Prior knowledge:
By secondary structure, this protein is α+β, with helices and mostly antiparallel strands. The chain has a single domain (15-156), classed as NADH Oxidase (3-Layer(aba) Sandwich), CATH 3.40.109.10. The protein is 41% helix and 17% strand. The protein has seven helices and four strands. The chain has helices spanning 3-14, 28-39, 58-65, 71-76, 93-113, 128-135, 164-167, and strands at residues 50-55, 79-86, 117-121, 141-150. It has a four-stranded antiparallel beta sheet with strand order 1-2-4-3, sandwiched between helices. The longest helix is centred in the middle third of the chain and has 21 residues, at 93-113. The chain starts with a helix and ends in a 5-residue tail after the last helix. The structure holds flavin mononucleotide (FMN).
Amino acid sequence: MNDVRKAVLDAIHTRRSVRTYLDDPVADEDVRIILEAGRWAPSGLNNQPWRFVVVRDPTIKKQIAEQTRYREIIRNAPVIVVVFMDNEVSYDRVKDCQGIGACLQNMWLAAHALNLGAVWLGEILKNKDRVAEILMTPESLELMAVLAVGHPRHGRQSSQRKPLTDLIVKEF
Ligand SMILES: Cc1cc2nc3c(=O)[nH]c(=O)nc-3n(C[C@H](O)[C@H](O)[C@H](O)COP(=O)(O)O)c2cc1C
């Protein structure tokens, strides 16, 4: 296997949800690389509907943390990337959500490539209006997820997936 192929496939297979972090800060350059990976995600009509709010400030982070039962993850993460959809540029809700999913996966894989740990947090969406209020974002922005990022506190975790035979409905 060539190097790029191996690196990409390894990253896909070894990326895990990392929910506990060391206190060490995440370098600004690493945050930039993660955001760049998100920026290069594909989107329908190339409309790039994602918008980001980066939060390192502990006081604001604590307020965001209170909006989810996964509060400890956000409190302990040195940085969170709050990901929004800009409804002003949205042209098809399903396709735009799919694009934002690709954006989040790109950022998650980028964090993994940098030996950082990250987790995509969706449960917080139940309080999306409150999150927007705290961050004072424009009306057109709708919360899609929070990506918590930090240096992993623990080593490699395991995870499970359904076997491919349960997923392939038909092959012609
Ligand atoms: C749309 C979405 C929402 C998620 N929401 C949460 C969440 O709110 N809290 C959490 O701890 N993990 C959340 N996760 C992470 C999943 O639990 C995790 O990806 C899954 O269990 C597989 O584990 P792995 O990422 O380590 O392979 C979410 C993942 C996705 C894609």
